[in-house]
Amino acid sequence: MAMPSLIPQALAGATAGFPVKVNPKFDGSGLDLTSYKYVTSYNNFYEFTTDKGGVKELANQGWKTDPWTIKIGGLVENPFKADVNELVKKLGGIEERIYRFRCVEAWSMVVPWDGFPLRKLIELAKPKSSARFLKFTTFVDPKSAPGQKRRTIDWPYVEALNMAEATNDLAFVATGVYGKPLPNQNGAPIRLVVPWKYGFKSIKSIVKIEFTSKRPVNTWQQLAPEEYGFYANVNPEVDHPRWSQASERIIGGGFSARQPTLLFNGYEKEVGHIYKGVNLRLLY
């Protein structure tokens, strides 16, 4: 699990809290890291393009992600706005966690994210007893993000978690990758990482987090509810209507490199209790 000898500097993003220390609980033991090259050049970011390989170029043509303000509100005792760098400092810096990453399109990576537990932000906001969900909203800037000129999606992109998911120890807010600030194409300067769910749940470039009593409808659930549910937990036993989810292509391992998909992406021990009694076939 060797780290690259040279990692390019990110073009923009939050810069506070580096260098980082690895959280030994999430040190990726037994996992092979996906190279920085693939992590930062192969991903979905429809705000820019539906072409995975074209995101990097389009996201770095003048789009500014520093400075960046995030707004926390809704059913909380302590609503606030904060610059991302100031937020990192307020929450006590950042750590590195190595997580599996599984896309709904049946490909996977192993990524060393840098950031802080979402739980820390929740504690800072002090949610009211009526808060049951967190709604995450990304930016709207069609001048910089050409994909937002297309109306195939009702921008801005929205995602959500219930409170049990959001306060789970795995739920993570990333401001970096591979020990460097997040590049624009990876969701600079601040994004969500929920490794037991399909990748579209890990919303990029967050500008607002709202605590709500009613369950929000996330973007892909709104677009195609027969294909994308609210939970979007990785589950090899529940196929996408158009392809199998039983296995996954390993990015960087060659097109034929595949492996079996694990329930909850291998994190059943950490999150399985959240869904006790839930019909994961019906509530996908």
Write a brief caption for the model.
The chain is of the alpha+beta class and about 280 residues long.
Blueprint (SSEs and pairs):
Elements: E1 21-22, H1 36-39, H2 55-58, E2 69-74, E3 80-83, H3 84-90, E4 95-102, E5 107-117, H4 118-125, E6 133-138, E7 158-162, H5 163-166, E8 172-177, E9 180-181, E10 191-193, E11 206-212, H6 219-223, E12 247-250, E13 258-260, H7 268-271
Can you characterise this structure?
Helices cover 13% and strands 24% of the residues. The chain has 284 residues and is of the alpha+beta class. A hairpin with a 5-residue loop joins strand 2 (69-74) and strand 3. It has a single domain (21-275), classed as Oxidoreductase, molybdopterin-binding domain (Sulfite Oxidase, Chain A, domain 2, Alpha-Beta Complex). It has helices at 36-39, 55-58, 84-90, 118-125, 163-166, 219-223, 268-271, and strands at residues 21-22, 69-74, 80-83, 95-102, 107-117, 133-138, 158-162, 172-177, 180-181, 191-193, 206-212, 247-250, 258-260. It starts with 20 loop residues before the first strand and ends in a 13-residue tail after the last helix. The strands form two sheets. Strands 1, 4, 5, 8, 9, 10, 12 and 13 form an eight-stranded mixed beta sheet that branches. Strands 3-2-11-6-7 form a five-stranded mixed beta sheet.
